[in-house]
Amino acid sequence: SHGATGTLYAISERGAHWKAAKTAGIRFAAALAFYPGCTAANRNKLTPAVPLGIFIGADDDWTPPAPCAALIESAKSDGRAVEFFSTPGAYHGFDVPGAAVRVRIDVRNQANPALGRGVHVGGNDPAREAATRDVDSFIGKRLKQAPTPVAPPSRQ
Fold first, then answer.
1. Closest alpha carbon to 82 in 70, 93, 92, 91
2. I need a surface site. Which of 35, 60, 75, 147 has the fewest CB within 10 A?
3. β-strands 102-108, 117-121: how paired?
4. 99-137 CB burial, b ≥16 within 10 A, e <16
5. How far apart are CA 69 and CA 86, in angstroms?
6. Along the 156 residues of the chain, how does pLDDT read in single tens digits?
7. Helix axis angle, 2-10 relative to 16-23, nearest 10°?
8. Cβ pair 48, 85 in contact under 8 A
9. What span, in angstroms and rounded, lies between the C-alpha atoms of 32 and 68?
10. What is the largest CA-CA distance in the chain?
11. How far apart are CA 23 and CA 107, in angstroms?
C-alpha cells in the first residue's frame, strides 16, 4: 500500500515527481494502485496525469476505500480516465494468494478510529482473481498492441 500511495504521487499532474519524470523523458501509459492510502492524496488534491486504476477491498479497515472512491470521483468529474475497483468481503492484502485473514493489532484502525488498534489483512482468492481480470482489462484498453513483426522476404 505504501507503493500504491507513492504511485498516486508519482503520477500527480502538479507534483514534483511527475515533472521530474517528464523532464527525464519517462512516460507512463497508465498506473495501477492496490489499496493506497488516499486521505492525504485528497487533501493534497492529487490529479492523475495518466489513466489510473485503484484496487481496494471494500472491507479494508487499514486504508479505507471511501477516500479512494472520492479521489476517483473527483478525477472523473475532471474528465480523467480513472476507474475504481472495490470487492466486497476483501481486506487489505486481498491479492496475496493463500494468506489467511488475520487481525494485526500493531496497526491503528484508519476506518474506525474508535476501535483503536487492529486491522484485518489477508488474501481473498475470488477478489484476487477478479482484480487480475480487471487489471488485464484496464491495461488492455490503454496499451497499444505491439505491431506484428513482418517476416523477412524469403530468399529463393
1. 70
2. 147
3. antiparallel
4. bebeeeeeeebbbeeeeeeebbbbbbeebbebbeebbee
5. 9
6. 888 999 998 999 888 888 888 899 888 889 999 999 998 887 778 899 999 999 999 999 999 999 999 999 999 999 999 999 999 999 999 999 999 999 999 988 877 777 778 999 999 999 999 999 999 999 998 886 444 444 455 555
7. 60
8. no
9. 13
10. 79
11. 38
What cell does 67 get? Answer: 477516500
Determine the pLDDT at residue 147: 45
Question: What is residue 120's three-state secondary structure?
Answer: strand
Locus of grid cell 530468399: 155
Structure-block grid coordinates of residue 83 = 476507474
Cell readout for 102 is 488475520
Q: Which residues contact 41 (CB under 8 A, 6 or more apart)?
A: 5, 8, 9, 12, 67, 71
pTM for the whole structure: 0.85
